[in-house]
Amino acid sequence: MFEEIKGIIAKQLRIKPEEIKNSDRLIEDLGADSLEMAEVLMTIEDKHGIYISDEDVLKIKTVQDIADYLDNM
After folding, report:
1. Catalytic residue among 24, 29, 33, 68, which?
2. Which of 10, 17, 34, 52 is the most exposed place for a label (fewest CB within 10 A)?
3. How would DSSP label each residue in 3-70?
């Protein structure tokens, strides 16, 4: 799961997947802006056939948060 998430983030942010840690915050640590964050989450929604509510989007800060969200689906 983490490798898939890291791959999506790496592609969107144009960084190497191995540079991404599970505890990294998407905005503060990885430098994503709000549009990039939205695109990462939309890609995850499309790949998993899910919808992440606006309320849940606000709770997602780290790579681990994304994995936890998907685990709880």
Report:
1. 33
2. 34
3. HHHHHHHHHHHT--GGG--TT-BTTTTT---HHHHHHHHHHHHHHHT----HHHHHH--BHHHHHHHH
**What does each of the 73 residues of the chain score in pLDDT, given as a tens digit?**
899 999 999 999 999 999 999 999 999 999 999 999 999 999 999 999 999 999 999 999 999 999 999 999 8
Domains in the chain (CATH in brackets) are: 2-71 (1.10.1200.10)
pTM: 0.90
